[in-house]
Amino acid sequence: MSSPTPEFVRAPVDGPCVAVFTTRRGGSSHGPYAALNLGGTVEDAPADVAANRQAVCAALGVDPESVVVGRQVHGAHVRHVGSGEVPSPFLDASHVWRDGDGLVSSLPGVGVGVFAADCLSVLLWRRDLPKVAAVHAGWRGLVAGILEGAVTQLGPAARLGAAIGPGIGPCCYPVSVEIRDRFVARFGEQVLAGDAVDLVGAARAALVGAGLAASAVWSLETCTSCDGDRWFSFRRDGAPTGRQLGLIWPISSSVWTGP
Ligand SMILES: [Zn+2]
After folding, report:
1. Cβ-contact 165, 13 below 8 angstroms
2. Cα–Cα distance between 181 and 58 in angstroms, integer?
3. Other residues' Cβ atoms within 10 Å of the Cβ of residue 88
4. Which CATH number fits the domain 10-252, given the four candidates 3.30.200.20, 2.40.70.10, 3.60.140.10, 3.40.50.150?
5. DSSP-derived secondary structure for 88-149
6. Ligand 1 center from residue 212 Cα (angstroms)
7. How far is the centre of ligand 1, averaged over its atoms, from the C-alpha of 196 (Å)?
8. Burial class (CB in 10 A: 0-12, 13-18, 19+), 19
9. Ligand 1 centroid vs 175 CA: distance in angstroms?
10. C-alpha 158 to ligand 1 mean position (Å)
11. What's the pLDDT tens digit per position in 128-140?
12. Distance 125 CA to ligand 1 centre (A)
């Protein structure tokens, strides 16, 4: 039997990099993890996760030993990936990674990834040189300023582009009044939708507030909870469920032909 082909969405980038968001389609995992679960912390069979990660890398033409991810703790810490982190044990589904909800790579060919299943994956890049970031941005990270922190690390903001990946929409994300108040204090009333918050709206507000042009922020505009054929959603399915991957890697400026 031939292995399934992983499905992913390529984000439009205008810098020397490649940015993709995987969906749940086209993988080897079963049950609540079907099919393309890429998360290693969700009690899926490690061999299936490894096969899925291998298949994604093969489909993208990426060396799995050049894909670095962080242990995500809903924090706001953004850190640079060093050359000592390659070769990476990306195919080891049980590897315990160094903390990092935001990772920056300026090593051509070395990708940085984030896992999510409702939280936003936000990928950022420099237009003028090979430098990128992958950010796990749930409500805690957004309120704590992780996107602004990533912009500071990549900056200047006027030279950046951003792609906001799949996440839970305001249609499906009612939250407590305490959380709503924190969002309003940070981003204004426009990020509320009744008793829900609009994570994409908040991410846009954070990026534009940090200096990006509104036109430099692209969004996939989908709701992980509404579209169960395409996305894992923790809010919808609870545990166990799988994780999508957002992945971005810089390419050498010398081989980049422009947007
Ligand atoms: Zn929805």
Report:
1. no
2. 44
3. 20
4. 3.60.140.10
5. --TT-TT--PPB-SEEEE-STT-EEEEEESSSEEEEEEESSSS-EEEEEE-HHHHHHTHHHH
6. 27
7. 11
8. buried
9. 14
10. 32
11. 999 999 999 999 9
12. 28
Is residue 167 within 8 A of residue 161, CB to CB? The reply is: no
240, amino acid identity: P
The dihedrals phi and psi of 92, each to the nearest 5 degrees, come to: -90, 100
Q: Which helix (H) or strand (E) holds 9?
A: strand 8-10
Tell me the CA–centroid distance for residue 225 and ligand 1, in Å: 5
* Cα 217 to ligand 1 centre (Å): 21
Per the structure block, which two tokens stand in for 134? 């992958």
Give the position of tokens 């490690």. 46
What is the four-CA torsion angle of 221, 26, 233, 118, rounded to 10 degrees?
Answer: -50
Tell me the CB-side half-sphere exposure of residue 124, using CA atoms within 13 A. Answer: 34
Q: What does the pLDDT look like over 50-99, one tens digit per residue?
A: 999 999 999 999 999 999 999 999 999 999 999 999 999 999 999 999 99
Residue showing tokens 């507030």: 209
Instruction: Tokens for 64, please give them.
Output: 């799995």
Share of the chain above pLDDT 70, in %: 98
Q: 134 with 112: CB under 8 angstroms?
A: yes
Give distance in angstroms: CA of 119 to centre of ligand 1.
Answer: 13
Could you state, in order of their start, the residue ranges of all structural domains in the chain? 10-252
